[in-house]
Amino acid sequence: MSEKTTRFLTPLALLAALSACSSSGHRYQDKKMDFGALKTVAVMPFQNLSRDNLAADRVRDVFASALLATEAVYVVPNGEVARALGKVGVPIAVSPSAEEVVKLGQALKAEAILTGTVKEYGEVRSGTAVGNAISVSVQMQETSSGKVIWTGTTTKGGVTFSDRLFGGGGAPMNHLTEEAVDDLLNKLFK
Known about the structure:
By secondary structure, this protein is an alpha/beta fold.
């Protein structure tokens, strides 16, 4: 290769590497909370801000399954959560108040409640290029007080340099969803 070609390709390779990176997001964790004391948690229905009507249900299902698979906590089944929401009378299941969290904790015998928001799910565009992306935030509230003890956000996927150059649409949504959930769980157990 000529020196001129090398000078052109080196910045191009760096740009490709940087554009393919996914945002790992932010996290907050209450330093005073003993997370080892949590034995049972409930995952509330997620709020959906994306264009895909089923995105919140899909992400919640993957999140709850992956959390249960860690064997760190017991995750209350979705049906029991739905019954408790009706019994306690929570009008907005995706964002219960602190008082409602306390009542739900008593009804479900859970030490913590997890709520989430799916901000982006599906196809995104940048110019003529297309890729898949997911952006999710999750928070945990302890049921003794309703206080937020952990939050985490993540974004995976998007339009990469290779998508712009060669097309292709990016990674499949199920793969990106699993990556996003794994990132959130890593932040939770960190």
